[in-house]
Amino acid sequence: MSKHFEHSSFREKLIEHLFIGEMLKLSWLKDDCQLEIIKTEVDNAGCDVVLEDNNIIRHIQLKTSKLGAKASGQKVNVRLATKPSGCIVWIVFDENTLELCSFYFFGAEAGRPLTGLENAKVAKHTKANVDGLKAERSNIRILNKGQFTRYDSIEDLYKVLFFPQN
Q: Its domain of life (predicted)?
């Protein structure tokens, strides 16, 4: 059995910490050390971490895929759209080195609320009920990979997260 499958929760937490570490490093390198990080205790609205810089608060749902994975989309919580500048960051990592390779972003410009979930396909439960039906998950939507914007550097992602594109 693959370590990535057997210890997926460990790996997810590790990738999250690597991402946060890279964000902190960028705040350090730009000589202001102003990035604030809040870790959510309960993920009932799709938010894994809250980051703030440049007076922009980002409620972020993190997703991960290993490099070369065939994932064509991600399931996201619609309640993320009720948060200030909610967004999804999909991290692609190298399964051998755990290097963060690229980032897919779905969200609005810094300081604007998340839109685009209202018309997305409603997700269904993976397991069927006693009648063999897979019930809809009313708060979960499916976003296709093509709806995300790809960034090949964490620096570019940082700019998109915290600095409005005027």
A: Bacteria
Class (C level, CATH) for 3-162: alpha beta
Global pTM?
0.90
Q: In what order do the strands lie in the sheet with 49-53?
A: 36-39, 49-53, 56-66, 87-93, 100-107, 149-151
Q: Where are the domains of the chain?
A: 3-162
| Residue 165 DSSP class | -
Cβ burial, residue 18 (10 Å; 0-12/13-18/19+)? middle
Pairing mode of beta strands 56-66, 149-151: unpaired
Rounded to 5 degrees, φ, ψ at 10 are -60, -45
Query: What is the layout of strands, in order, in the sheet containing 73-77?
Result: 73-77, 136-144, 121-124
